[in-house]
Amino acid sequence: MRLNDDLIESDIAAYLEKHEHKSLLRFITCGSVDDGKSTLIGRLLYDAKMIFEDQLASLESDSKKVGTQGENIDFALLVDGLTAEREQGITIDVAYRFFATEKRKFIVADTPGHEQYTRNMATGASTADVAILMVDARKGILTQTRRHSFITSLLGIRKVVLAINKMDLINYSQQAYDDIVDDFYAFADELATDLEIQPIPMSALEGVNITSKSNETDWYDGPSLMDYLETVPVGDRRLNTPFRMPVQWVNRPNLDFRGFSGQIAAGTIQPGDRVKSMPSGKQSTVQRIVTATGDLEQAIAGQSVTITLDDEIDCSRGDVLVSAEDPSEVSDQFQARLLWMSETPLLPGRRYLLKMGAKTVTATVNAPKYGIDVNTLNDVPAKTLELNQIGVTTLSLDQAIPYDPYDVNREMGGFILIDRMTNDTVGLGLVDFALRRASNIHWQAMDVDRSALAEQKGQKPAVLWFTGLSGSGKSTIANALQKLLFAQGKHTFTLDGDNVRHGLNRDLGFTDADRVENIRRVANVARLMSDAGLITLVSFISPFRSERQMARNLMADGEFIEVYVDTPLSVAEDRDVKGLYKKARAGEIKNFTGIDSPYEPPRAPELRIDTVNNSPEEAAEVILGFMREKGLLNGG
Amino acid sequence: MKNLTHLDRLEAESLHIIREVAAECENPVMLYSVGKDSAVMLHLAMKAFYPSRPPFPLMHVDTTWKFREMIEFRDRKAKELGFDLLVHVNEDGVRDGVGPFSHGSAVHTDVMKTLALKQALDKYKFDAAFGGARRDEEKSRAKERIFSFRSAEHRWDPKRQRPEPWNVYNTRINQGESVRVFPLSNWTELDIWQYIRRENIEIVPLYFAAPRPVVNWNGVDIMVDDDRMPEELRSTAVTKSVRFRTLGCYPLTGAVESTAATLEDIIQEMLLTTTSERQGRVIDADQSGSMEKKKQEGYF
Ligand SMILES: Nc1nc2c(ncn2[C@@H]2O[C@H](COP(=O)(O)OP(=O)(O)OP(=O)(O)O)[C@@H](O)[C@H]2O)c(=O)[nH]1
Ligand SMILES: [Mg+2]
């Protein structure tokens, strides 16, 4: 690092003082593949003298080996640090680089242009103040340019540099430049009303208009890129919004101290301020703002602190301390914009984990209301969201959480969705508004409750969930078991796949999304039946683990018994009682489980039934034995 | 209203990351390498939970070839701050007499550091391990997430990194997997030094220049720290005023000639130097992309 500042040599302490108080700008480069984003960052680092001699030596040798510029330096290699990236000459994942000038410090995220890696681009964009949108002057605005400008504006970036690059290849033609700029303004009008756009013609490769204005573009009277970056105003707009602090950790070193640790997401706070703990809404007063270097008189957005309160109110991780005058709202149903980030498409109706701030809840993501075409910004019909697709949808949470709309506060309205089976982060969401306020909904409390209903029938409710391939014997065994239970005077009911599909689920087909919805409805019916005190037998293929888990989560502890009717595909296909396998093999039935649609066997079912060596009656006896052992056949 | 400085922001971000791990992970550990970055990380951990103590132990993977001053410092610091300190040594390596002089830097690092770390993580079944790495250190680090996932075999897959928007971290892992967490990801070398100066953080004296016995080995000056250095090499020792920009195994850590005896001197020297901090590490020079390869194999 060779900063041209004489203070370094003459008065280092003064230099450090100055350096520490420089403002920080976070920006990204984005745009279509090969438009020159990485080259630009490499160039900036090089021109800002942030490259050490040893790094320069290896850059020179790398450029000759794998560079795209013949004998010349390929600046992209300074940022494309992964082997796969250097081999393919593209960026795959975000690189974070740091540099400083006399005026400012910068954190830059160089994001990939390739559509496949859009999720990595979104990661970089989520924390940026400014986006440099690169355009290849020969190609103009492409779909990917539009997609990236849409995502940056979605995530809240309002300052955009429209960097028209590779001007060297079109002789620095003003006409071509003007055309592209006009083109982009037309698109940007639809994007957001408050976008501030700064177009700059440049050549990242030749260093034109990067750190200073160049003669090649004497017709251009705007700033060089570096001039812009050094002077564009940055302010933390979170400071002037009402106080919010998600509680990360309850700090209890001993019985006399109970503090709430977290990073302030918005506003300011002082001892004596009234706060509420959400979602409970309990009020108290801030007593102290504790840090290891002493108590603070005031803390502001961005700081990590520990707050103690005057009263012993209930508050734990995931709750949010908010200004009592201007509290956040609480809801369990939202409309949100979603960017899907997984190769496995969104399954409407499936339950995902939702993490926002320090809170993780279970959320059912409903079918999208519509998708958004990134090219035209029009709404398009969408049944699901595929990788990198953006849409608007509603979500229902299993509990109410405090929130602010994303456009008011990123931290209080931005969330991720996590697949509960793979633990992958599959979606990024932005809360727009709540569909209803939780305070308006009341669960209807019944005087005659579920235990009274079960007691009246002299039994314990249970849900026996039979899962297995088509033709594995689920219904036959359920039928045999129901006979045995009936003979014992138990009140039972069987929900059978085929029967339910004739009525309640008549509108559903066999796509993955419909299968999820099918199971969601059936699980809820089973839940109501067990609330009514019944022993319910559910006989559904239910091929997906996560849906069976969803059903399990709906029931009270110990009431869900997963019975895996484990008949190998070859045996079921041999039996082919309904002739369905034959049709599926012939291609007459699509999405048939086991043939062209997957079956995920249970990992830890309560019972596994072997139908090759047992008759249905024997299987029913085994299940009855299990129920007896678990005390499920005793009185209610 | 006072604005937050750059260091204030970095500190706040790191505290948030450290707390998130303590709140969500079952069995975290802080890997303590005794260097300046570790010193900062330790300091941040103390701050994150104050007035409580950090709810996790420290672990040092000891290759047995660290500078003696580092070991003294480590033991004293852990005691002073009241940390549980776990020290892990690859006993198989010790038994086979593996060391940098006899086996070379690659084998030594692989056996005594990479393998040893895997052993230790498996032994204690840690599901999360803090490390003091920074993105400005090296070009594959610049690509790594703050929460970086490792398979049950401790491998890093750079093509399958999880999206990490805002400051919302998905800490969930499957059985056997683990996560490496880098609270200093966004710090630069200069930030580290400035913070050490601002917070008055104690660091191993080897960072400051002093007359020390050094020999030239494979083109770099290394310090004579004990008599395991081969006799013929040791006999060439000369005393020079040197210091170290990073600390590791003494035979693999190049000394720089310097008279910088205070933090200001060090920072000044760093700002005027024309080579990177990693240049003194014997381990990187092998080939381009070597760091990424090491990481994929389980090197921190
Ligand atoms: N002539 C010319 N070539 C350029 C310029 N900028 C970049 N290039 C070349 O364009 C190619 C792609 O550059 P990169 O910087 O890798 O592009 P990128 O936008 O980072 O690509 P992805 O990250 O993969 O989307 C390289 O061969 C560069 O050398 C420029 O201003 N002029
Ligand atoms: Mg690139």
TrEMBL record, chain B:
GO BP: sulfate assimilation
Transmembrane segments: none
InterPro entries given in the database record: PAPS_reduct_dom, Rossmann-like_a/b/a_fold, SO4_adenylTrfase_ssu, Sulfate_adenylyltrnsfr_sub2
GO molecular function list: ATP binding; sulfate adenylyltransferase (ATP) activity
Region (Disordered): 281-300
Compositional bias (Basic and acidic residues): 291-300
Enzyme Commission designation: 2.7.7.4
Domain Phosphoadenosine phosphosulphate reductase span(s) in chain numbering: 27-254
Signal sequence extent: none
Keywords: ATP-binding, Nucleotide-binding, Nucleotidyltransferase, Transferase
Family: Belongs to the PAPS reductase family. CysD subfamily.
Protein name: Sulfate adenylyltransferase subunit 2
Organism, scientific name: hydrothermal vent metagenome
